Amino acid sequence: MSSTVELLESIIKFGGHQQLVRFLNSCDESRVFTTEVDEAKTAVAVANRLLNENSSRRDGLLVLKSLLGQIPSESLQANLFQWLQQALKGLSQKESSTTVIIAAEVI
User: Fold this and answer.
1) pTM, whole model, 2 decimals?
2) What whole-number distance in Å separates Cα of residue 107 and Cα of residue 103?
3) What residue ranges do the domains of the chain occupy?
């Protein structure tokens, strides 16, 4: 059985934007990252990796948006400054209105 993060990685690599949104909505509804602490830590690492690249920032913001209400406060505190910086970069991506909207929602 694949882990949630393995499925997430596969969707990011092979799926489209809508498939990622549906998957993350399912993660939100099931609150999977609140019950699976190791999965949450790995998902935070995935979000950080995606956020650090202009080409994947939109996906990183989507993953981050899903994680924010589910991760332990320690993870939030450890990453908050970096996430704010990356969200602000997303706000400045003029070529993608979708990224700007998601970044604003995250902030």
Assistant:
1) 0.91
2) 6
3) 4-106
Rounded-to-integer distance, Cα 3 and Cα 9, Å? 10
User: What is the pLDDT at residue 1?
Assistant: 41
18's CB contacts (< 8 A; 6+ apart) are none
User: How do residues 2-58 score in pLDDT, each as one tens digit?
Assistant: 699 999 999 999 999 999 999 999 999 999 999 888 889 999 999 999 999 989 999
For 23-74, the three-class secondary structure string (H helix, E strand, C coil) is HHHHHHHHCHHHHCHHHHHHHHHHHHHHHCCHHHHHHHHHHHHHHCCCCCHH
AA letter at 52: N
